[in-house]
Amino acid sequence: MTFKATTSLSDARAFLGDAPVMAKRRTAEAESVKETRQLRVAIVHYWLVSMRGGEKVVEELCRMFPQADIFTLVCNRDRISDFLKTRNIRTSFLQKIPGAQRHYTKMLPLMPFALEQFDLQDYDLVLSSESGPAKGIITRADALHVCYCHSPMRYIWDQFHVYRHGLPWVGRALMSVTAPMLRAWDVTTSSRVDVFVANSDYVANRIRRFYDRDSIVIHPPVATDDFSVGKGKGEFYLYAGQLTAYKRPDIAVRACTEAGRKLIVIGEGEQLPYLKSIAGTTVQFLGHQPFDVLRDHLSRCRALLFPGTEDFGILPVEAMASGRPVLAFDAGGARETVSSPQVGFRFAEQTTEALLETMAAFEEVEDDIDPQAIRAHSLKFSSAVFRNRMAGLIEQQLSTHADRSVDAFSRRPV
Questions:
Q1: Where are the domains of the chain?
Q2: What is the pTM of this model?
Q3: Which helix (H) or strand (E) element contains residue 41?
Q4: Distance between CA 142 and CA 405 in Å, rounded?
Q5: CA distances in angstroms from 160 to 106, 149, 349, 388, listed in the order given
Q6: Class of the CATH-defined domain 41-221+384-401
Q7: CA nearest neighbour of 244 among 273, 286, 283
Q8: Spatial contact of 282 and 260, defined as CB atoms under 8 Å apart
Q9: CA–CA distance, 172 with 10 (Å, rounded to integer)
């Protein structure tokens, strides 16, 4: 505001004293206009090349905001759900690089640049789904940016050496050079986020450690309605998921081999040949299976064995939605989902011996476990609960964000 020379300082102060009232009126008018033209929403996801936990979150956000546009670095439409295929999906220039849909992880050094090319100036609300680079998007100055963080990027932080050791020497050298720059960019762009939402207390602690930011914990959606309680006592132990080293499927295979317990393994990965070499006759490998087969085995197993560390871990909740207990390593999200002896047991050491002891303790009380109580516990993590909690948070943050704009105006020096 420009004042004429004849305007006194007291008049100016009086005018500015009314400014918050005027600003609030303008905010209310703007909200009315916004409701008329509908909130412009952008959902930013790192890449859409499969249907895992992160993509399930994107689906639920799209159900909350049907008008939202999706921005992602790379998309493979053959491997996403029919629901997501109906959305308006915009990809980065990385999509045009030959082989990008299969070798996207090798393009990590280019991802910050590609992400920042997205123009989000027309959007009032930006929801980033973070596990790879997503939160670093550049938004309009007055837009609200809520980041749902599945995990800070593992491959440049706490899992850096694990990923680096799995690369050929050229990849190791390139990663050593680019990782420090990516870490600096990752930390710097955390300030572009208005509100962090963590998918577990475990991830909230990692956000605090790497970004020095607080977060609100809202567990990810689990489609509990897709599962039902199985009949009778379980027939076998079950391990399901990727057969990779950090998930420690070897612990489940060794334990059931030593105990002579039947174990069915569903999944594929680079550890499959090794696991077959250490497995006894009681262990059966089914490889990758469609959802219906996995659901059937979850409903018929004695218990799910979960020896790895996950940021949250949706599979244990799916097992509990089937009325089956979980025997999990005492780390990560399992501490929040396998939270009592009524739904499962946690073992303190990531060893075969610890799992064997836990299996023995479980089998002593197996007949007393109530499948319906286990399923009731799983409903705390349902998709409906996720949508309700996210909707409440976003509504509150939109209101607070508008109030902050008014407060900033009222605090301007005279």
A1: 41-221+384-401, 224-381
A2: 0.82
A3: strand 41-45
A4: 8
A5: 14, 18, 23, 35
A6: alpha beta
A7: 273
A8: yes
A9: 66
Q: What homologous superfamily does CATH list for 224-381?
A: Glycogen Phosphorylase B; (3.40.50.2000)
Extended strands (E) in 203-259 = 216-217, 237-240
Domain 41-221+384-401 matches domain 224-381 at the CATH topology level: yes
The string of pLDDT tens digits covering residues 223-257 is 999 999 988 888 899 999 989 888 999 999 999 99
CA-CA distance, 377 to 343, in Å (whole number)? 8
Residue-wise pLDDT tens digits, 147-192: 999 999 887 777 666 767 767 777 778 778 888 888 898 899 999 9
Instruction: Give the pLDDT confidence score for residue 295 in this predicted structure.
Output: 95
β-strand partners of 306: 328
pLDDT digit string (tens) for 320-379?
999 999 999 999 999 999 999 999 999 999 999 999 999 999 999 999 999 999 999 999
User: Count of alpha carbons within 13 Å of 75, Cβ hemisphere only?
Assistant: 18
The candidate with the shortest Cα–Cα distance to 48, out of 5, 12, 94, is: 94
